[in-house]
Amino acid sequence: GFGIGGSFTKEDMATAVRWVCEELPVGKPRHLLGIGEPIDILLAIENGIDTFDCVAPTRIARNGALYTKDGRINILNAQYKNDMSPVSEDETWYTHNYTKAYLAHLFRSDEILANTIASLHNLRFITQLVDDARHHLEKGTFLEFKDNFIAQYYK
Length: 155
Prior knowledge:
Blueprint: H1 10-23, E1 31-33, H2 38-46, E2 51-53, H3 56-62, E3 65-68, E4 71-74, H4 100-108, H5 112-139, H6 142-153
Parallel strand pairs: 1-2
Antiparallel strand pairs: 3-4
């Protein structure tokens, strides 16, 4: 293992990861600890990282933040109080069974189920992101996928 401390911009983090990966033995898995934001994961994959683990998806979930393809949202914002759309758009996700209004209510009521639903949602989002990244790596379209994801995430 190798630790990198300090504060990096996203571009600097990606460059540092690339430099480290260039020095590591070829054919060995590269694991990056503490990178859990969707954009950071894609930048790390682009620069040679194979696996990740981080508390970010569940930590931010416990504070009411959810990853979406359109960026991170805070379910406690007033706009979600009466939003009857599902937490996740994908009908195959467990969190599709709950509305944003219900999740916002659970957080406002300090119900522990709020943390569970939000954490499940964020973990599924990251799992889907990595699955999609793998698919695009295999097809040779990863850079286009990454650029499109980032443009959508920050629109």
